[in-house]
Each structure stands twice: as C-alpha cells, then as structure tokens.
C-alpha cells in the first residue's frame, strides 16, 4: 500500500501510537531533567507502567488494523523479516516521529511554563538518552505486537476478519496477566505495611499496580454483571450491557481506571506537598515580608515597630529563640496585637493561624516601658520584731535593676533616708537614671540595710520623672508560683516585677512530651517563665512544627534583654511602603526577605523535583488515557455503523438504538466512577500515603496527608464524563444512510467501511 | 402481495436494476436467480425498503415499502447475504432481539429463539458469541432470526450459500413452512437446487428480469 494511502487509511491508529510515544518521550525527557535536579525517578514508575500498557494498546490497534495487509503479504509468499518490515514499518515511523516530537514538546513546554520547574538550564546527554530509550522501548513493543499477528494462522485471520473484533491477546494470557496483577497488588499492599515503606520502590510504584488492578477488577465486575439476568433485560438494556461488556472496551476500561487512579494519587501527592511547602514557607517567614535585626534586642525591635508604625498598620515585632538548631524545640514571641493586620493575610489560611486566640495570648501583663532621667522612691520600713533601736532606724538602700535603651542591664542604687526626723520609718530617695531617654524596663529591686538592719520595706511609690513605675507589685524571683504580688520587699532579697512571673499564655505545637510537659520555659531573657497552654496546633508561626508561640510584650515584661539565641524580627505586610522598609534597614535590619510564592524553598530541591515529577505523572496519565480513548473511538465508529445497520434491518428502531448507547455509556461511566473513586481512595489510603512526600524533621510541619477522597471523586467523575462523552460522540449514528445500510448488510465488506 | 412496478435503481456510475415489473404473491416461494452481479441483492434491497428505487415503486399490500429513511416495514424480515448479526450478542440473543424488537416479552423471545435454533440444529450453540461460530452456523443463526419473527414477508439473500445439503434442505423446508403459513417469501440464489424447490422462478441478467418459470 502506498505510504500516503496507508497514512490516510490508518491515520487514527498511527496518530495514537505516535502521540502515545510523544507523551512518553516528553515525559522521559522532563523526568530525567527533574532527576538531575534531585528528583527520584521511581516516582514516575506508575506512568511508565501505564505508558507500557498504552503503547501496547495503540500498537495492537494498529497491528489489527493492518492484519489484512499481512494476510495479503503472506498469501503472496512474503514471510519473515521482510513481512515484518512491511507490516511494522508504519508503526516504527509513528514511533520515530513521536520520539522526535516528544522532546520538542517538552522543550516548548518548559519555555512556556513557569520558570519554577526545577530543571537544569541546559539539557544534557541524559535527556537525549531518555528520549531515545523511550523510543526504543515503544518500537520494541510495536514490533512485538505486530509479531503476534504472525502467530495467527492465515485461516484465523480470515475468520476473525468476518467480525473484525477478534482480539490479538489470547484469553488465557489476559487471564494470567489479570491474576498476576492482583498478586502484585497484594505484594504492594503488604510492603506498604512495613516500616521501611516510605522509601520502598514497590510502594512508590504502588499507584500504577493499584490502578491497573482496580481496572482489572472493574472489567471482571462488569462481566459478572453482564452474566446475570440477561433474560429479563429490555432490548436497549440487553444491547447496552452487551456493548459495555464487550472485549473491545476491556483494555481501555482498565487503562482509563488505572490512569485516573495513578493521576489522582500523583496529583494528591503533588498538591499535598505543594500545600505543605506553601504553608511551611508562610509559617517560616511569618508574614509577607520579614526583616531580621541581628544586632537589635527584642525590646528594641518592639520599640522600633512602635516608633515607625505607631498605628500598627504595617509592622509587627517578633523574637525567635531557636538556637538555629532544628532538633531544639523553639519559642517565638510575636506582637500579637498586630497579628490580624500584619500577619493575618498570610497566616490565616494555615494551620498556624492565631486568629481567635489573640486576646487570650495577651491575657497577661505586658511590658511597661518608661523614659526619664530621674528615679524617685518613697517607702516605709518595718523593723523586725524584737529588733533594737539601731534596727528601727536603719540606713537603707534600694538597688534598682533595669534594661536600658540599648538593651544593657543597668543598676542604680538609691539611699533612702527619713523624710522627717520624727518619722524615721518614712523614707525616700532620688537618683539620676542614665540611658533611659529612649525607654527602659524595670527588672528588679533589692533593698539592703547597713550592718544588722532587718525587717521589711514597703514601697509606696517608684517614679521615673512623673511616671509611677511600681506596677502591680513585686514577687520573689524564685518563690512559689502562687505567691501574691506585694509592694513589701524583704531586705537583702531581690524582688522582681510581678508581671515577670505571671503565667504567659502560649500555644504549643509538636511533640506531645513538649506540649504536655514542662509548664515553664526559658524566657526571652534567659530566665524561667511559667506558661499556661491555651492549646496545641499542628504548626505555629516561626517555630513551625515544634515549639511554642506567645505574646512578645508579655514575654518582655521583666525580661533581662535577649539572650544570644534570640533573633529579633520585624514582620511586615506585603504592601508595606518601601520607605518604611528602608527605615528599618537603616536602623540595622537585614535586607527584607519576601515570602516565596512557590513551595520550592520550603521543600528543598529534592522534594520540589519530586513534586514536579508527580505533576508530570498526573498529567501524563491523563493524556495517555485520553489518547487510548480517542484511539478506540474510530474503531467504535465503524462498529457503531455496522451494528446500527444490522439492527435497523431487523426492526430495531433508532430510539431503541439510542437508548442502548445511553445504557452502554452510563454503565461504563458508572463503572469508571465507582472503580476510580473507591479504588483511588483505597490506593491512596492503603499504599501511596506511605510514600514520603516532603522532608521531615522535628521543627518542620507534620507530613501532609495525601489521602484526598475529594480528589479521588473529582478525578473519577472527570474520567467517567470524558469516557461517556467519547462513547456517545463516537458511537452516535450520523444519519446512517439507507444506501449505507444496504451496503453494510448486503456486501461482504468485513473490515472496510463503505465509503 | 408485493407489487414491483417499473423499478429502476441507478447509482452515479451505472444502472444496477432496470425495468422490473413483478408481482410476488403470498403463499408462494419465489426464487430470483442470476449470475453474480446480476442485481439480485440490489433488487431485494429495493423490495425490502432499504433503498429508494430511482424510478417506479414497490408496494406491499398497497403500501410503499420505501418509508423515506431506509428503515424497513415491520412486516419485512431479512436473511442477509453477510448475515448482519450483531457480534457482541450470542446466537440466542441475536434471534431473541429481533423478536423483542417486535414487542415479544424478553423471556418468551428467548424461549422462541431457542426453539428456532433447535429446529435449525444449532440449539447447542445458542449461548456462544456469534464470533465463535463457523460460516454455516452463522448462516443458520441468520435464518433462525428471520424465521423466528414470523413476518408476513421474508426476503432471503443467498440463504443457503454456506450450507451443506442437509442444512440447505432444512432451511428450505422452513421457508416453505413460512410460505404455507401465508407469508411472501423471496429467495435470491444462484443454486439450481434451491430454485427447484421454489414455486416461481425469475431469472435476472444485467439488472433485468429475463425469464420467469415454474420449477418442478
């Protein structure tokens, strides 16, 4: 047959084989490129498995379409390699074309696709080898399927030509292959239950095996259904059921179900990893923009945000104590009063959202910052019982510790003297307060008496310039947790502001031993701080999967500055005016870090490449299934014509024929829907959820759950709708002309459509 | 009674049937013979209402057999040269479905189909897919399908071409039975022994009726 006529007559079969090869070769090229970027090639195994099935199907269609050409060749005495060359040459040409088109399509895709695909800038030899290997495998499969024709006796070719529906695959082989699939699925299921499942190649390949197994079970189920109650069906029902269960649909049903399941599992995995990456990035950065201030204390940072953005519209201070070691549980303090406006737009969609708990986190005294130049104190001294005259008229000093504006702990000492000679117990004193022009925080007081002075000192006032800074009272730094705050200080014992020892409300995330464990943490200044757990989350801003989050002003209350492990951060909205960011940089902040709109940064190169490999598998599976369905459509069109002609001759009217097609489409669509949604969910729940999608670690977000029933149902519905559409469109009777009916039913034209 | 009046059938290339004037009566077995390509199958297609005659008309009891769509009248049944069986159905279902199309209940249609296949001695193959049957078996299934519906008109195109003598006589006996029941039966054949078993014989040559005789 001349090449042009051959291409015209077998255009559909050649296009499907070439297209399938192109899909696979482009996938091979992209997969290899992603592998070079750290991706695991085993992720693509399900697609390779489907590809093998798809190429076999396309090759079988082409081989069967050409079986009369082989017959003619054999009758003319052409045998062996010569006959193979004659019959298989079109298939080889289609494969060659697909092998060339595939890499070109992949290249075009990368040129048009977002630059976020983590593939190397230049393709190397490996990509070429991958495309060539795919082409060789496809050519091998095409040759093998053509060779199966040679095994048919010439007489069998004649006989099967009568109905044109003779499958090339022997029933026994199909049955053994089906049983083999079920056994393989059982092995996969078993391996998925083992501890090492996450890195197991068998489990990685599980979606492909699971998909094909469910597809095989769907074929068997449909056949079982067909055998029951055939006698009671209506004419349309009988025809529809028989068509739906005919052998011509079985391989495509298997492939469609498998592709939908593989696609669902891969897509769910990719979506889960992508969502994990986005959420990790959002929680890691904490807002749209973050700026680290390496030389600035937490208090200064908080003051800076108050100064630059007094209304709290753009900036929010935070401090992270993480020692830069992911194995440590981390602590983050945020100025949660500003959370809703600054961080909310980024974090509210995450598991680490603080919406709804802002007020609870702030339910403790916050830091009191004062400014001024002079400190004045007034107090009453109560001598100890039994003390002598000397003890009753002591010379007392009040040592005041505070954190100055540059984050340094300062100490001043006031001498308290009697204000009136006749009232020796009423004391007062005054002293200059250095470094408090910007803002200071009171840390502690110690009253001391000369020699044997004893008793207690009740502080009446503690005033900086005109501001009373004595707060809610004072407590012993190491006293019992329920010690009530008081203005009375024991001599020679340090007291701290009550706010410094108030329970800090926090949210926790991560290890239960942490969330249920100690009720104290090392505070922002290094000292112990009691906490009250408000609840536990899967992840929290800045600490991600392990640690706690509290309010920064509460944490700063009574805190002795930032210890070395504390990093000061300013979080900013995405639309923060640039001059505000510039001002922050001028005041010592590092360059702003903007949140990565993708998920690659959090995932790392390997998991990001795996994510794209999964996307590739999902898209490739869909395209393979579509190619197979469209390939079957042409043959179906011919069969539909023949059947329509035969049926109208025996008096089956158009309405019944239409209903039969509808029954067929509905039955197959329902089977695809049920098998794919249930099978997809089962495959994900039993096998693929064990595959590690993202990097793990104590300070990362928990591993995402890739079992997504909604995805399974959506993919199943999509597969069912596409297939039903193909069936109904390809099978519809395009006004079967009377002449056509007469020709089909009167002439021996078994495999050639009347033209 | 079928009246064929001045029928021609032409395609763009050539005339396949011309100047056919013929009356076929119920109760008779009418044979149409001729060499391959003489126009037998085309004439049956025109008579059965599968194609529209270029000129003239075909009437069944006064009603035109051409209904404008190519769908035959319910009174017609066919044994097709290429059987026209539906490959996805079993032998029984191929027969049963023709009965169901005429309103017979499914269970009854299956029973009647089994009975007819038994009469054609292929009852043991009734559950087989027609894809699995030989040429002779397929032809008998096609005959069973046309006979089972007991239509007033039966147009048989080479109904015995793949059959051995015994089976041929069996089929002709059943066609005779239909004719005796009052049906109009037309058999297109090139088998003289089939012709001999018919009541009226028309011979065609190059699309025309060239002779009429009464065999036996």
Could you explain how this protein is built, in words?
The complex is a heterodimer of chains A (755) and B (216). Chain A is 51% helix and 16% strand. Chain A is of the alpha+beta class and 755 residues long. Chain A has 4 domains: 1-168, no CATH class; 169-288 and 604-755, no CATH class; 295-364 and 503-589, no CATH class; 369-498, Lipoxygenase-1. By secondary structure, chain B is of the alpha/beta class. Chain B has a domain at 1-75 and 153-160 and 180-216: Rossmann fold, CATH 3.40.50.300. In chain B, 32% of the residues lie in helices and 28% in strands. Chain B is built from 6 helices and 10 strands. The longest helix of chain B has 16 residues, at 165-180. The radius of gyration of chain B is 17 Å and the shape is globular. In chain B, 56% of the residues are buried. Classes of the chains: A alpha+beta (755), B alpha/beta (216). Chains A and B meet through α7, α11, α21 and α24 of A and α1, β6, α2, α3 and α4 of B.
What's this model, at a glance?
By secondary structure, chain A is an alpha+beta fold.
Give the largest chain-chain interface (CB within 8 Å): A-B, 42 and 41 residues
Strand proportion of chain B, as a percent range, falls in 25-35%
Tally of contiguous helical segments of chain B: 6
Number of strands of chain B: 10
The helix fraction of chain A, in percent, is 40-55%
How much is the radius of gyration of chain A in Å? 39 Å
Q: Can you give the mean pLDDT of chain B?
A: 90
List the helices and strands and how they pair.
The complex is a heterodimer of chains A (755) and B (216).
Chain A: H1 3-9, H2 11-36, H3 45-65, H4 67-75, H5 80-112, H6 125-151, H7 154-163, H8 171-192, H9 201-204, H10 206-227, H11 235-244, H12 250-285, E1 289-293, H13 298-308, E2 315-321, E3 330-334, H14 339-342, H15 344-347, H16 358-361, E4 369-370, E5 374-382, H17 389-392, E6 396-403, E7 409-420, E8 423-432, E9 440-449, E10 456-464, E11 467-468, E12 474-475, E13 488-490, E14 494-497, E15 504-509, H18 512-515, E16 520-522, E17 528-537, E18 547-551, H19 552-556, E19 566-572, H20 578-586, E20 593-594, H21 600-649, H22 654-686, H23 709-731, H24 738-746
Parallel strand pairs in A: 3-18, 15-17
Antiparallel strand pairs in A: 1-19, 1-20, 2-3, 2-19, 4-9, 5-8, 5-10, 6-7, 6-9, 7-8, 9-14, 10-11, 10-13, 12-14, 15-18, 16-17
Helix pairs in contact in A: 2-3, 2-5, 2-6, 2-21, 3-6, 3-10, 3-12, 3-21, 4-5, 4-7, 5-6, 8-10, 10-12, 10-22, 11-22, 12-21, 12-22, 12-23, 21-23, 21-24, 22-23
Chain B: E1 2-10, E2 15-24, E3 29-34, H1 40-48, E4 55-60, E5 63-64, E6 76-79, H2 91-101, H3 106-119, H4 135-148, E7 153-157, H5 165-180, E8 184-189, H6 192-196, E9 200-205, E10 208-213
Parallel strand pairs in B: 3-8, 3-9, 6-7, 7-8
Antiparallel strand pairs in B: 1-2, 1-4, 4-5, 9-10
Helix pairs in contact in B: 2-3, 2-4, 3-4
């Amino acid at each position: 047959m001349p090449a042009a006529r051959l291409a015209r007559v077998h255009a559909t079969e050649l296009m499907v084989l070439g297209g399938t090869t192109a899909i696979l070769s482009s996938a091979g090229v992209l997969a290899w490129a992603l592998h070079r970027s750290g991706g695991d090639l085993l992720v693509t195994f399900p697609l390779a498995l489907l590809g093998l099935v798809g190429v076999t199907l396309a090759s079988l269609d082409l081989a069967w379409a050409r079986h009369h050409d082989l017959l003619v060749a054999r009758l003319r005495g052409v045998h062996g390699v010569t006959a193979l060359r004659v019959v298989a040459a079109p298939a080889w040409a289609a494969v060659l074309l697909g092998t060339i088109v595939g890499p070109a399509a992949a290249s075009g895709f990368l040129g048009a696709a977002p630059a976020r695909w983590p593939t190397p800038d230049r393709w190397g030899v490996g990509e070429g080898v991958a495309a060539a290997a795919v082409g060789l495998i496809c050519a091998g499969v095409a040759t093998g399927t053509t060779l199966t024709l040679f095994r048919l006796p010439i007489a069998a070719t004649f006989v099967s030509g009568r109905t044109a529906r003779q499958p090339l695959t022997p029933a026994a082989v199909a049955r053994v292959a089906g049983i083999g699939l079920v056994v393989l699925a059982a092995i996969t299921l078993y391996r998925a239950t083992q501890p090492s499942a996450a890195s197991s190649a068998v489990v990685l390949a599980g979606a492909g095996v699971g998909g094909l197994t469910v597809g095989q079970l769907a074929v068997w189920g449909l056949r079982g259904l067909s055998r029951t109650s055939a006698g009671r069906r209506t004419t349309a029902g009988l025809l529809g059921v028989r068509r739906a269960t005919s052998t011509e649909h079985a391989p495509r049903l298997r492939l469609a179900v498998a592709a939908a399941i593989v696609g669902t599992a891969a897509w769910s995995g990719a979506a889960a990893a992508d969502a994990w990456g986005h959420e990790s990035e959002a929680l890691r950065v904490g807002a749209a923009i973050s700026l680290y201030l390496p030389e600035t204390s937490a208090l200064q940072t908080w003051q800076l945000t108050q100064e630059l953005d007094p209304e709290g519209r753009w900036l929010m201070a935070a401090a992270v104590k993480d020692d830069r070691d992911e194995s440590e549980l981390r602590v983050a303090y945020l100025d949660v009063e500003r959370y809703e406006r600054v961080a909310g737009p980024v974090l509210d969609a995450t598991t680490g959202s603080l919406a709804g708990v802002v007020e609870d986190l702030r339910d403790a005294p916050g830091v009191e910052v004062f400014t001024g130049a002079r400190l004045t104190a007034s107090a009453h001294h109560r001598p100890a019982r039994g003390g002598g005259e000397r003890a009753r008229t002591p010379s007392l000093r009040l040592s005041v510790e505070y954190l100055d504006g540059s984050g340094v702990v300062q100490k001043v000492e006031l001498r308290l003297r009697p204000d009136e000679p006749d009232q020796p117990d009423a004391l007062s004193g005054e002293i200059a307060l250095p470094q408090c022009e910007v803002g200071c925080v009171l840390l502690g007081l110690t009253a001391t008496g000369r020699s044997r002075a004893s008793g207690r000192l009740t502080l009446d006032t503690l005033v900086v310039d005109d501001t009373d800074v004595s707060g809610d009272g004072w407590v012993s730094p190491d006293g019992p947790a329920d010690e009530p705050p008081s203005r009375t200080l024991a001599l020679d014992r340090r007291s701290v502001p009550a706010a410094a020892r108030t329970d800090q409300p926090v949210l926790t995330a991560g290890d239960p031993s942490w969330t249920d464990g100690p009720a104290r943490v090392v505070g922002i200044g290094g000292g112990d701080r009691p906490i009250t757990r408000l609840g536990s989350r899967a992840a929290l801003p800045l600490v991600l999967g392990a640690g706690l989050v509290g309010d920064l002003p509460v944490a700063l209350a009574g805190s002795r500055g930032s210890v070395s492990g504390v990093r000061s951060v300013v979080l900013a909205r995405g639309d923060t005016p640039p001059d505000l960011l510039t001002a922050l940089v001028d005041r010592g902040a590092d360059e702003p870090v903007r949140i990565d709109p993708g998920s690659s940064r959090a995932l790392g190169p390997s998991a990001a490449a795996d994510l794209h490999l999964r996307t590739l598998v999902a898209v490739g599976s869909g395209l393979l299934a579509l190619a197979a369905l469209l390939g079957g459509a042409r043959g179906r069109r011919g069969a539909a014509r023949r059947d329509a002609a035969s049926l109208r001759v025996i008096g089956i009217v158009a309405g019944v024929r239409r209903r039969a097609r509808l029954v067929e489409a509905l039955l197959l669509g329902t089977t695809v829907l049920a098998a794919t949604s249930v099978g997809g969910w089962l495959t994900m729940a039993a096998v693929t959820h064990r595959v590690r999608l993202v990097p793990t670690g104590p300070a990362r977000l928990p591993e995402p759950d890739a079992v997504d029933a909604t995805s399974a149902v959506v993919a199943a519905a999509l597969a069912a709708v596409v297939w039903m559409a193909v069936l109904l469109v390809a099978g519809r009777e395009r006004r079967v002309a009377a002449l056509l009916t007469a020709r089909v039913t009167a002439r021996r034209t078994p495999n050639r459509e009347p033209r | 009674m079928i009246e064929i009046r001045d029928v021609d059938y032409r395609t763009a290339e050539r005339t396949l049937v011309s100047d056919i004037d013929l009356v076929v009566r119920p109760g008779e077995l009418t044979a149409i013979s001729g060499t391959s390509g003489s126009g037998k199958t085309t004439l049956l297609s025109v008579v059965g209402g599968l194609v529209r005659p270029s000129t003239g008309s075909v009437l069944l009891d006064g009603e035109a057999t051409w209904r404008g769509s190519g769908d035959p009248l319910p009174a017609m049944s066919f044994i097709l040269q290429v059987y026209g069986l539906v490959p996805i159905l079993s032998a029984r279902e191929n027969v049963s479905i023709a009965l169901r199309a005429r309103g017979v209940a499914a269970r009854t249609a299956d029973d009647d189909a089994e009975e007819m296949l038994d009469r054609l001695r292929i009852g043991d193959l009734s559950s087989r897919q027609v894809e699995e049957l030989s040429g002779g078996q397929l032809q008998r299934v096609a005959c069973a399908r046309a006979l089972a519906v007991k239509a007033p008109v039966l147009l048989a195109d080479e109904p015995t071409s793949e059959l051995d003598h015994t089976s041929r006589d069996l089929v002709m006996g059943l066609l005779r039975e239909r004719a005796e029941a009052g049906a109009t039966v037309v058999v297109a054949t090139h088998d003289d022994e089939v012709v001999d078993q018919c009541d009226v014989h028309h011979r065609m040559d190059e699309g025309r009726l060239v002779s009429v005789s009464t065999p036996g």
